[in-house]
Amino acid sequence: GTLISFLGFIKYAGGPMPAFWVYSKNGQESQLISTFVNRNHLAGYLEMVFALGLGFILFRPAERILFWSSCLLLILVGLFLSMSRGGWIATFTSLIFIGILFFRQKGMSKVKIWAATMALFLTVSLSFLGSNTMVERLLSFKNPNEPSLLLRLSAWKGCTKLILEDPLHGTGLGTFPWSFTAVRSAGLPKRWREAHNDYLQIVTEMGLLVLIPIAWGLLLVFRIGLKTFWNTKSRFRAGVTLGGLGAIMAILIHSLIDFNIQITSNGILFSVLVALVMGSATSKATGPKSREIH
Fold first, then answer.
1. What is the model's pLDDT at position 175?
2. Where are the beta strands (DSSP E) in the chain?
3. E strand or H helix at 241
């Protein structure tokens, strides 16, 4: 994640980059997209890495924290410069999730936790209000040249029509780019290959019944992960589990308005995060990193 952010900074500053990483669209020069084609997909990757890294740092010895904190700071700056609204929201939500669990485990009262949450919310809000670029980005929902929220809502209405036509079976896995043309609104520019909502698209293609194994799987991951986090005495396992759950939450939130999990790198990272959380529940705490939490 740090390397991807660093490459993005070089590209953002106009530095030399390989031909296959040059900007593919006009106007992208004001966005940090690094080795990705789309800023939202870069943000999706970085938000997962950031949450996982934060979990590690919170449970590392204090004398080793400076280097890793610097790496996380670079990732966070990359997230902000990506100008991805979904990435900002997902990162902020996962940060609150991680903070609440961490401080609860340390014995902080609920009142103090909510006070700290409100303080964080105010700090982030004031930071955004102090940046004209970020405020303009947050208010750009009505921009007709990008898949804004209004265009997404129009596309989601079309998806709803497709679901109602065959709610049990859907249109078939991978058929969205072609099936959507039958219900595509006249106001939608270009061709929509994705619904910009992973949940809605999978239901459109595979029917409502697919939600059962998806919900069961996610519930199982969070149930086992939280149980591991509360019960483990290993600092390493606690950090992996907390960071992994925070990262999973981040990408699940971002997937409400985008199609990050369909991107190969992001989908693989999501699978690795699930494996880390589930593996931490069964692995034995060994080695120097398995010291007890204090």
1. 92
2. none
3. helix 235-254
